[in-house]
């Protein structure tokens, strides 16, 4: 969902090009097996380590909204900047006995190019 435009373009997994907005909304579909488990989003760093941004509320930069009845959750990235380009992963918290972990199931590549 794009509502305000900058002089940049954005490309997602589908390689569709649109104008970049002040915020970017990513819709993450998740398998029904994850049901009501907590949702997570992380961004890969240059070492391919995925840093969780789900709990990051620094200046309201990221927010998650759960639409589990529709089988999706949404990630809103506000005040979009060039540093927001990169690989994001959608996932959900799962467990095996006493061990809790995050299963990643959707990869989203965001590219931002300014003219």
Automatic annotation (TrEMBL):
GO terms for cellular component: plasma membrane. Gene3D superfamilies: Immunoglobulins (2.60.40.10). Its main location: membrane. This is Immunoglobulin V-set domain-containing protein. It comes from the Eukaryota. One of its GO terms (molecular function) is transmembrane signaling receptor activity. Keywords: Membrane, Transmembrane. It is found in: Membrane. Transmembrane segments: none annotated. The keyword Transmembrane applies.
């Amino acid at each position: 969902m794009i509502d305000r435009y900058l002089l940049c373009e954005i490309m997602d997994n589908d390689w569709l090009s649109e104008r970049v907005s002040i915020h970017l909304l990513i819709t993450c579909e998740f398998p029904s097996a994850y049901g009501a488990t907590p949702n997570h989003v992380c961004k890969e760093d240059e070492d391919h380590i995925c840093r969780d941004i789900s709990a990051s509320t620094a200046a309201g930069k990221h927010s998650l909204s759960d639409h589990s009845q529709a089988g999706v959750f949404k990630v809103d990235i506000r005040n979009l900047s060039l540093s927001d380009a990169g690989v994001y992963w959608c996932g959900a918290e799962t467990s095996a006995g006493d061990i809790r972990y995050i299963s990643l199931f959707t990869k989203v590549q965001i590219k931002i190019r300014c003219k």
